[in-house]
Amino acid sequence: MNALETLSHWRLERDPDGLAWLTFDRAGSAVNALSADTMAELATVLDALDAQPPKGLVIRSGKATGFIVGADVNEFAELNTPEQGRALVARGWNLFNRLAAVRYPTLALIQGHCLGGGLELALACRYRLVEDTPGASLALPEVMLGIFPGWGGMLRLPAVIGAPAALDMMLTGRGADARRAAALGLVDARVPTRLLQAAARGMVLSGKPPRRARGLGAWLNRWPLKAVAANRARKQVAAKDPLGHYPAAPAIIELWEKHGGNALQAPALIDTIIASDTARNLLRVFRLQERLKANGRQAGIAPVRHVHVVGAGVMGGDIAAWCALKGLTVTLQDQDMTRIAPAIKRAASLFSRRLKDRRAARAAFDRLVPDPAGGGVPLADVVIEAISESPEAKRGLYQSLEPRMKADALLATNTSSLSLETLGAGLARPERLVGIHFFNPVAKMPLVEVVHADGTAADTLARASAFVGQIGKLALPVRSAPGFLVNAVLAPYMLQAMRSVDEGVSPAAVDAAMVAFGMPMGPLELADTVGLDIARAAGQELAGGAEPPRCLAEKLARGDLGKKSGRGFYTWRDGKPVKDGQGAARAPAGLAERLIQPLVDATRERVEAGVVADADLADAGVIFGTGFAPFTGGPLHYQSSRSA
């Protein structure tokens, strides 16, 4: 038995004309990830090809889930010594350098996800082709895990697409779809599915020189312009993270600028980054995200094809638009076309912004159907109610909807505060009522709370979670309770911020303290954005009868509702708050900790009350539902690590 016959994860086949096809199909896994054993086997394959070189080599995936999702992140969690960290970097750096140096032409045939180490492998090939489908995504997201692309990405990506575009991809983790990857020069071509094999054969045997950056992008890879590009990137990183909560981004710039992307030349930097609390916490957040994604993958549940949304306000209209963007047929109901028209206009803007292809944007627009008479109700797999927060109005609507719905359709409410027990009273089949609570803005907020009560059928909860996953959101199951999880922890946080204003701290100082802590937005700017009337309603629901903060009551008495009225804690101009810019200097010592404590306490209370299953899911919900500083690992993890 030769060495190739012992392989578990790779399959090598040779055509009669000498072209070799290497298929990666990681055993026992739904996705291809690069682990120690899969990479050792790849080295064995390269040994065999050294002994008997092919005319060309095409590397492809045997998984329907995509090309390669990156390194096996579980191996990062097992790094306990500096030597282990350096060995992990060396493993990929040396292997992919070897692949890049082979005598025969190589091609990565990319279908679906090509992320992290997967893209670094593809960059080590002479050519790259990508399947022209909506699911294609090429990215180096290591910075999102608090680490860096140390297997050759920092060396090869700038050489292929130029320094500015490469630094943008590496420092943000943003990916490129098939169209953008081709436009950047990251791939040689995007190819229709039916032509993939023929195109791969033609390209790998073409003899064409490999793609390289040209023009200014290429010159910025060389001294002295390289230093200019690096300094510009440092300023951009510092502007987004002035306190240096995320050290991986500056490390990427330094490794590219001073070490040619070779982290092995800066072992102390490897040690610092991989052993950092930030990297460990961001890895934890990644795993929490994967757990939420798993909630959206329910075996044996048929996909939703038609959604009917009742209520074309900001939330209902934007939920409808998002579902249409994700390929579903959507009927949108309200009292008349005058109420529906603004939602359709916002949807058109979303489609043109998200779908660069004009035909794809048009197709999404065609899937969103204005439906004042509610003709879509009998056709829908899911009916979503998104009307005003009035129990009487919602129950009245359900009485008209329920008799017209399909027997197996879900009835979902987007309520942010009302209990399912209250809303389900009077339903013939209360077991199919479920909360599907989106957050504003729908297109940006990844979390959706899937709310269930004692009477909710298990199948209803599973189908609702699968629907949330189908439309690309993170499903968090929560029990019906005031504020569920996210609003229940935000309300005391925002109220505490307002009480600080009552004590004489300026709104700008309050918000600056929390942005410095790592929040994406300060609590008072958030309150203005949500609406001060809505903030008061949420506070009353959760404050146990306590008096509202004086500053909030005064603003509401004047009709200052925040962003929507043009004035709240801030004056709003062109959709942005006007601040004095001196907030951080005037923030009292310890302010951030005082403001965050009510949020932490409320999160723990929600776990103890069984609203969310466990502390990890609570941390996940607060991170993805509020933007709570990811580098902390979540509010409960943050407090436990500080007290340890």
Counting helices, strands and paired strands, the structural category is: alpha/beta
Shape: globular
- Please, how many helices? 28
Sheet bearing the most strands, described? Answer: 8 strands, mixed
Helix % is 40-55%
Bin the strand percentage. 5-15%
Please report the distance between the alpha carbons of the first and last residues.
Answer: 54 Å
| Unreliable parts | none
Radius of gyration: 27 Å
Query: Would you tell me the overall average pLDDT?
Result: 91
Largest sheet strand order: 14-13-12-15-16-17-18-19
How many extended strands?
21
How is this structure best described in words?
The protein is an alpha/beta fold. The protein has 28 helices and 21 strands. The strands form five sheets. An eight-stranded mixed β-sheet has the order 14-13-12-15-16-17-18-19, sandwiched between helices. α18 (about 420-425) links the parallel β16 (about 410-415) and β17. α21 packs across α26. The longest helix has 19 residues, at about 80-100. It is globular and about 80 Å long.
Pick out its properties:
644 residues; single chain; eight-stranded mixed β-sheet; alpha/beta
Brief rundown of the structure:
By secondary structure, the chain is an alpha/beta fold. The protein is built from 28 helices and 21 strands.
Topology:
Layout (H helix, E strand, L loop, with lengths): L9 E5 L4 E6 L8 E2 L1 H16 L4 E6 L4 E3 L1 E2 L1 H5 L4 H19 L5 E5 L2 E3 L1 H7 L3 E5 L5 E3 L13 H9 L1 H10 L5 H7 L4 E3 L4 H9 L10 H5 L5 H16 L7 H12 L7 H8 L2 H19 L10 E5 L3 H12 L3 E5 L3 H18 L3 H10 E3 L11 E4 L5 H11 L8 E4 L6 H5 L8 E5 L9 E6 L5 H13 L3 E6 L6 H17 L4 H11 L5 H8 L1 H11 L7 H8 L13 E3 L2 E3 L4 H4 L4 H18 L6 H12 L8 H9 L1
Parallel strand pairs: 2-4, 3-6, 4-7, 5-8, 7-9, 8-10, 9-11, 12-13, 12-15, 13-14, 15-16, 16-17, 18-19
Antiparallel strand pairs: 1-2, 17-18, 20-21
Helix pairs in contact: 1-3, 3-4, 3-12, 4-5, 5-6, 6-10, 6-11, 10-11, 13-27, 14-15, 15-16, 20-22, 20-23, 20-26, 21-26, 26-27
